[in-house]
Amino acid sequence: MIFDIIMPLALAAVTLVSWWLNQKTESKLKTTLEEKEFKTRDAVLLVTAMAVMVSAIVLLRDMMAPLMILFLFSYSTLLFIFTYIFSNKREYLAVIPPATFVLIYAFFSTTDIWRYYLSNVYGVIFAILITLYIGTLFTWKTTVIFTGLLTVMDIILVLVTGTMIEAAKTVASLNLPVMVQLPIVPLIMNEAGELGLTGLGLGDFFFAGLLAIQTHKRYDRKTTIASVAAMAISFGIFEFAMLTYWRRPLPGTFMIILGWAVVAVSKMLWNRQHKNKENILPK
After folding, report:
1. Percent helix / strand / coil, the chain, rounded to 5
2. Strand intervals (E) in the chain
3. Region 123-147: what's the mean pLDDT?
4. Given a cut of 70, is residue 282 above it in pLDDT?
5. What are the two backbone dihedrals, phi and then psi, of residue 189, each rounded to the nearest 5 degrees?
6. Does the pLDDT value for residue 248 go beyond 90?
7. Residue ranges per structural domain of the chain
8. Angle between helices 221-241 and 252-280 (to 10 degrees)
9. Would you say residue 200 has pLDDT above 60?
10. What is the pLDDT of residue 280?
C-alpha cells in the first residue's frame, strides 16, 4: 500500500493561505476590477475556454516555442499586475518580479534546483495569485455553476478522452511551473531508483481556493476550515487509491469537490433545519 501525507497537507496549506490573503486583498482588487462579477454566462464561457485551451495544447504540442512563450507571457503578466496594484501603480517596481521569473526560468529551467524547488515555489505563487485575481470575480451562484461544469469537464478530459493528461505532459516537457510536485511521504523509490513524486496541477489549487473563499462568504469561518480539511482528506483518500490500486491519473477536481460537498451540504441542511425550528417556535 502506498499513501501520502504531503500533497494533501500542501493542498490544505495553499488553500488556507489563498483564503486568508483574499480577505486582505479583495477590496483593493475589486476596486481595480471596478466591482465586476461573473455572471452565469461568464462561468460557462470560462469553462469552455479552458477546455479549448487544453485541446489546443495537445493539437499544438509540436510547436513548443509558441506554447512556452504563451505561458511565460501569462505568468509574467500576472506577476506584473499584482506588483503594479500593490505597489501603488509603480511601473518600475512592477517589472522586477516578471523579469526575475523569466531570467530564472531561462537559466535554471533544466536544472534539479528548478525541478525540485524553484518550479514548486513559483507554482504555489501562481496558484495563489490566480485564486486571488479570478476568485474576486465570482459569486456563490457562479462558483457552484463553474465548479460543477469544471468537474464534469475534468472527468471527461481525464478519464474519457485523456486530453488533459496529454496536455499536462506537453506543458511539463517545457519545465514550466504548471503543477506542484512533491515527494511521496512516507518516502518511496521507483523502479529506476528515483524518489517517488506526486503532482497536482495549479488549476486544482485554484479550484480548492475558490471553494474555500466562497464558503467563507456564504457561511462562516468554522465551516470554511472544515471544508478545507474535508477537501484535503478526500483528496488524500483518492490519492491513496490511485497510488495503490488504480495507478492512473484521476481528475483532481472530483477528488476535491467531494470533500467540500460533504461539509457544504451538511451546513446547508443544518441551517435549513435550524431555521425551520425557529419558525415553529412560539413568538
Report:
1. 75, 5, 20
2. 179-183, 197-201
3. 93
4. no
5. -115, 140
6. no
7. 6-272
8. 140
9. yes
10. 59
User: Can you tell me the distance from the alpha carbon of 232 to that of 230, in angstroms, rounded to the nearest whole number?
Assistant: 5
Q: How far apart are alpha carbons 256 and 264 in whole angstroms?
A: 13
Give the dihedral of Cα atoms 151, 152, 158, 164; nearest 10 deg. -70
**pLDDT (tens digit per residue) in 213-238:** 999 999 999 999 999 999 999 999 99
Give pLDDT tens digits for 139-168: 999 999 999 999 999 999 999 998 998 888
Residue 70 has a CB neighbour count (10 Å cut-off) of 15
pLDDT at position 192 is: 59
Residue 180, SS3 per DSSP = strand
Buried-state track 226-240, b at ≥16 Cβ within 10 A, e below 16: bbbbbbbebbbebbb
What would the DSSP string read from start to end of 241-263? HIIIII-S---HHHHHHHHHHHH
Measured between alpha carbons, how far is 59 from 168 in angstroms, rounded to an integer?
A: 13
Confirm if 94 and 43 have CB atoms less than 8 A apart: no
Q: How many residues does the chain have?
A: 283
Residue that the C-alpha cell 476590477 belongs to: 33
**Which 8-state DSSP code applies to residue 156?**
I
Dihedral in degrees, nearest 10, Cα atoms 171, 173, 179, 180: -170
Q: How far apart are CA 121 and CA 79, in angstroms?
A: 14
Pairing of strands 197-201, 179-183: antiparallel
The label of the residue with cell 525541478 reads 115
How high is the pLDDT of residue 245?
Answer: 84
**202, 179 contact by CB (below 8 A):** yes
Whole-prediction pTM: 0.91
Neighbouring C-beta atoms of residue 137, cutoff 10 Å:
17
| Sequence-distant (≥ 6) Cβ neighbours of residue 70 within 8 angstroms | none
How far is C-alpha 74 from the chain's CA centre? 16
DSSP string, 222-234: HHHHHHHHHHHHH
